[in-house]
Write a structure and sequence with these properties.
The chain has helices at 12-15, 29-48, 54-81, 83-87, 91-117, 123-146, 148-164, 166-182, 184-202, 211-229, 253-265, 307-321; strands at residues 209-210, 233-238, 247-248, 272-281, 284-292, 326-332, 335-343. By secondary structure, the chain is α+β, with helices and mostly antiparallel strands.
Length: 345
Amino acid sequence: MQETQILSTPSPAATATPKRALVFDACHAGVVLRAVLFVEAVAGVGAMFATETPAQWLAVLALLTGGVLPATLAWLLVACSLKVWLQRLSIAQQYTAGVLLGTLAGLLACALLALVLADNPPWLACAAAGALLSALLVAGLILRARARAPATTTARLAELQARIRPHFLFNTLNSAIALVRAEPAQAEALLEDLSDLFRHALVEQGETATLGEEIQLAQRYLAIEQVRFGERLRVQWLLDPNADGAHLPPLLLQPLVENAVKHGVEPSRHGGKLRIATQRRGDRVVVRITNTLPAPHEGSTSTRGHGIALDNVRARLALLHDVQAQFSTKVKNGLYQVRISIPCG
């Protein structure tokens, strides 16, 4: 028998010392792209003050790019490399570190320009410009990081609402009651799974969860629904152990599985088939959730119901992995498929 924690018992995640948050994170391809475009835009506007014709502007911009672009990339590289160290600092110290890195980056840009111009550059102005641009960039990254909190809270509330919905809760309890005499061990396992689903919805899980943890949560949910639907619910797991370490926003996978059951299996008289597959492909992990759809005479085949959770999933993936996350859905040959592609680390 599994050992599980009742709802009133704090989980290790809840009692452990909370990890200090990283104020800004520069380790995303989307962040690098936006930072480069932002600095180039500032350089382009600055070049307008010293030029009169488009040709002169282009020449000055090219010259400035030779200094500011390497300095910007250096700032991003150092900030990403020091991610673990920065996380140990207080919030104020992280702010200060970001601005100091910007000051050094500004001085680096001046040094590179001095090599080309063979002239004495305005060191103080370069340092001030680097500090200011760095402060703006850090502020943007902070706003992006803070946007994760309400998205995660929304997901936890939606998950909790799904768990306490009378339709799901009563069916689960009725299934447990029916099993108490005939299959007491199965009834106990059913209630343990229900308890674990509540615990994940109620307890703060942190900013990320591993794919392996999300798979375990989905398996508990499907174990409950398997008792309810019996042979009508046919589940196939195609899991790659090498993909388990990929990071997802917490409580992301289970709502997608629940949608597949609600809109694919439940409306069909003969039930349906659900397949969850994970695969690691090089430096990426692909997750596919595929479910059959009910026949036309059994109800509408519209997939509008799936959209309840999809917008939140798409937004939370973008907040965590930025442009490195891919999320898509499609209907083909009577099957509804959700595909997620994320970095493996």
